[in-house]
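Memo to structure team: turn this sequence into structure tokens by end of day. - J.P.
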Amino acid sequence: MKKIINISFLLVAIFLFSCTVQEKDIFNDSPANRIEAALKADQAILTGAKNGWLMEYYPAAQQIYGGFNVLVSFTDDKATVASEIALPSKSSTSYYSLKQSAGPVLTFDSYNDIFHVFSTPDSKIAGVGKNGVGYGGDFEFLILKATADSVILQGKKTSNRIVMTPFTSETSWSDQITKFQEAKKKMTFSIFTYEVNNKSIHVSVNNRKLIFKYTNEQGSQVTVTAPYIQTLTGYKLYSPLTIEGVTVNEFIFKQEGDVEYFVPSNGANAKLVVLYPPINQQLVSGNWYFKYSGLGSYGKTKWDYTKTNGLDKIGEELNNAYIGTYSTGAYGFCFASSDGTGLYAGVFICTYTLVNEDKITYTYSQTVLDNALWYFNNAAFGNLINPISNGKTNPRTFTITADNVKKPTWIKLTEDANANNTMILEKTPVYSPYSK
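Reply from structure team:
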């Protein structure tokens, strides 16, 4: 028995020795050296795209703002960036690094005034979101895959998938950015109907998200959200969209006379048809921003009073103001005020009546949410709501005009009973409206 045990021990020792030798052959370098080699290989790929990369960048968790086109090129230690959210002629260069952190990580680790717009918490710089959050985007990315054909990144904070492909076009960066911006202008719509399997589904747009709402076979209300990025030919979806058994990855824009629509790039039997509602419906279905220079003499008098007797006295600045839908879903005059350290928002709730196709009657319900009552009592904000409606007993009726009744970038309200009470409202957000 003792001999058997010794022989068994000898066999185990020989086996372990053999395994140890084999492992040494496979891993013939230190972990640190292997990591360094992997990072150098990734850097060689990044710097190897001579005209840079086209990055499909999705900021914010759940892709709530959709995607944006970014051009980026790399040298050994610097990254140069251009983006569709900046001027076509503008680019910005800053440092980047590659490091190991549960996998290779690409970090844009010195401030880049184009790229870091997506990750800055300052909502004034970002132009969207709450102060302290902004777009809520990433500047650190796990490298999931890196080849000469594509680089797949994952945001460390949002976990969003970011795809980069070599920008091989002979088009200059500035011309390419211009094309993206022109495509966005051409293909910006607010309402569609989605025709699929003999069903017509209502579709609205919020930021760069298509929102499909319909009733399923069980009679339940269904909402499907599809974030997208603007391409030169249409909308490329962040992930496949499947409704009524039809799957779509990308919509291609088509135009036949006055009819504008999108079709799936894979030839699926579906169509996203552009609708043009009356101008007063477009007013109430979106958020339309105030700026001081867009007010008539009546409105300026009211806003001047609030500035002198309200905001200046409490040492605050009006960050933004718009007529539209508040974060709670309430409709009315919405605002955010800043004391330099935070934003304080509220809404003066209004009801409305649509008259014909180019008129609207607003009534201030004298109901408020969040900070609106405090600002009414302490900062004379009643004067800001006054040009829209002077309380329940004094509604105001306006005639609506616009720069383009199909796709307005601004809407003008002119009160029927007071020609001096006019308001030009902007579709894109306006910050610090007293200075605009």
